[in-house]
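Can anyone check this?
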Amino acid sequence: MVDVRPHAPQFVSALDEDRALRASVERLLRADYEVSAVMQSTLASDWPGDLAGRLLLSLARYARAGMPTLERATLLNEAMLEALTPRGYLGPEVGEILDEQQVACHGWVAAGLLQFFHVTGDDRSRRAALRVIDTLIAPALRRRDYPWERVIPAFGGAPSGTATEVIDGWAVSSDVWCVLLSLNALVPAALHGGRSDLGALIVELTQTVSTLDVVAHKAQLHAVLAAARNLADWAVGTGDEQSGQTAMALYDTYAREARTLNHATFNWFGRPDSWTEPCAIVDSVGVAGSLHALTGDERYRTDIARIAHNGLAFAERLDGSFGLDTIATPSDPVLRAIEPDAHWCCTIRGAIGLLECRETAAVWNGDALVVRDLYSGTHRARTEAGGWGIRQITRFPREATVAFTVVDAPETAADFVVEVVMEGVTRTVSLPARVGATQTVDLAFPLRREQVEGVEVERMGPVLRVRDLDVPEAPPRLLSEFTGTFPGADGPRLDLASDAERRR
């Protein structure tokens, strides 16, 4: 998933029919994300620019998708350009000691500016993004003295990272290896700008990351999966083999060592005592999408739908905020909310995840529109005969049905083929080149049981079935019936293991 996307999406969500997406848009436009408040907070933070950069990226991505966020994005872009004018970056002037968090969060600053440039054409934003890289990020990385092998404490760290010690000239963060977030700037800048010097830095970082033991060092999942996402993007964009192999290896390690039963993520490797991290959940979606594009392996697309409808969906609160939840594991398969609104990062980043899941859920392969997850909106596809518009209406996962209606079609064309492929179920329909032509698909997912490290879980399609521990006599229900239904941390307690006796 390239966070920074230069072209209009081929699928545009129907905001009035998508409660989760609408709630997220409304949350981004609330008063606490008003520009003056954001700038005051971001300039005073020990993550200077992080809040503003993430928010500009999300607002600009939503504007690209036709959502009503461009006005606030424009105001925020202006404020950021003004704040960046004196030195080219935010926060204290860099001295002998480099602040890992300052370098890391400017990856978001540059990414937000680049996305705004692609949406509006404002070249000041592109130039400012490159200046961020050239005055802060690239010089820091070219020192080549970052302490990758430092000793990591077994416990400690808060939801928002803190720089707690100085090692080898770096003030390092409790968000272990968060310096990797600088790839959020390097990769889109190099892909879209053709900077060979930045490409060389990416190759060098790839070589370093390929040697790291993320589990032994209890690395932060957000940092590691952001690196994997960017390296997978680099592989897709350039054909670089090592970056693709490294991204695949990191993804496999996450899936084996730090994925929760509901397809969320640990905050740190080896730390089931911590909490889930929606920012990292979004990164896992992005890595899987790019690895699917790179390899064609369908397991990545299956993962995306499961992540979207279980991990990401449960993390979203009723008001569109994204919060932190318990880590549900085979030894402790209970899922409950513990933080109502990670407003400093996850609420903003979760918005990108929702959008990405929708915009990448279908692809035109030249012969058919292949749909691998279901959301309401409109597909745009160009064939040899001309452009098509296909309206998609669904209430999934509440109902496993979807209707396709032709809203635009060439005057003379063969039928438009739609193929729905999800969880081993495939349905194919053909739509004639006639506005108003409609076909409805019923997927009828069977109940499946799967063994995960000694416990059994149940799912219908991509969605898990769970038991409500607050109503123990009630039959199992789909996890989607609980998602987005509670306002904060006071949510349900859900048992994800279907065989309680085996778990004991």
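Reply from J.R.: I decoded it. Residues 11-360 form a domain with the Glycosyltransferase fold (CATH 1.50.10.10).
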